[in-house]
Amino acid sequence: MSTAYVIVTIVAAAAMLIASGVDVFRAQWVRDNMRRYGIPDWTLRPLALIKAAGAVGLLVGLAIPPLGLAAAICLVLYFLGAIFTIARARGYRDLGYPMPYLALAAASLVLFVLA
Fold it and tell me: Which of 6, 35, 44, 71 is deepest in the core (most CB within 10 A)?
């Protein structure tokens, strides 16, 4: 396990937990964006749970590698889905929001595979 993988994974997990916290506390700007994308408000908590579970999976994956691999794959797919949803709603100016999270999850996945 490389140092880069450990650092990127911890940073990715922290970012996912922060993002899930924003969803849990239902920030007004998040609710407004979700409505624009055609996503109902009630989905914020389940989506936050998915991100939080991914973060925990990344961290546990430092000790149990297959779990970290699964978490990284699922987070990459989650954020690709977010990008697709935003693009489908023509919210192109908002595409930058999920990109850093996708990059962190993808970096964790790539570094895992390379390790």
Answer: 71
